[in-house]
Amino acid sequence: MTAIAVTIAGSDSSGGAGIQADLKTFSALGVYGASVITALTAQNTTGVKAIHDVPPAFVTAQMDAVFSDLAVDAVKIGMLSQPTVIEAVAAGLARWKQTQVVLDPVMVAASGDPLIANESVAVLIRVLMPRVALITPNLPEAARLLGEAPATDRAAMEGQARRLRALGARAVLLKGGHGTGEESADYLLTEAGGSWFSAPRIATDNSHGTGCTLSSAIAAGLAKGTSVEQAVSEAKAYITEAIRHADDLDIGKGRGPVHHFHRWW
């Protein structure tokens, strides 16, 4: 059987993040990728210039077309900027009985541009988080979801992960890439307990699409039948090397992408 993963996310016209990064990640990790586009962005490595939201009915039509035909093993969810789109996605997951779902609560682009409306956050918590196997917020995203200040140490990260999991997700991966120190440490909390995944912090300005890529790599692992813990471990190793080789690329005038195909070119 061919492992299949679907990304439900926004399009990045510069190719570094969003569905483009997701599909590259799926391909790099040996998984067939399909997509449901929730928004179009006019962006490049210097920032987001405009956002055009896809109507909820068309998001629904895409989901029905994909899930009625493809035997989907895992789903990755990224940019959902409007409440009605979030509700459409949640309804589609329920209709097609999708449980292996990774939610990356994308709120701000690497350039600092906002990607989600304020009124969408409460809807995302209420209708979507209880349907996902794993949520993968970074420190600012976790703080916004909880209405708290960003965590600054491991104890605070562990506390926020517990409070996020109480909102409904079966597991939480709180990413420490926005922290400080020599290591980038992520905390995974599941029903079985907590685990830390650390890697050396790599000095580069080319980190566009990091969060999208990590969550897609986890979804790829789940699509291939691995446990959440193994999927996170393998995804952490993959994104670390993609960041390490980001400077091998020469893309754009701003914050360039990570190198999804660092193993091949």
Q: What key attributes describe this structure?
A:
6-stranded mixed beta sheet; alpha/beta; 3-stranded antiparallel beta sheet; UDP-N-acetylmuramoyl-L-alanine:D-glutamate ligase; single chain; 265 residues
Question: What report would you give on this structure?
Answer:
- With 265 residues, this protein is of the alpha/beta class.
- The protein has one domain: Ribokinase (UDP-N-acetylmuramoyl-L-alanine:D-glutamate ligase).
- It is built from eight helices and nine strands.
- The protein has helices spanning 18-28, 56-69, 83-95, 118-128, 139-146, 154-165, 210-223, 228-244; strands at 4-12, 32-44, 47-53, 74-77, 101-103, 134-135, 172-174, 183-190, 193-200.
- The strands form two sheets. A six-stranded mixed sheet has the order 3-2-1-4-5-6. Strands 7-8-9 form a three-stranded antiparallel sheet, with helices on both faces.
- The relative contact order is 0.17.
- The mean pLDDT is 94.
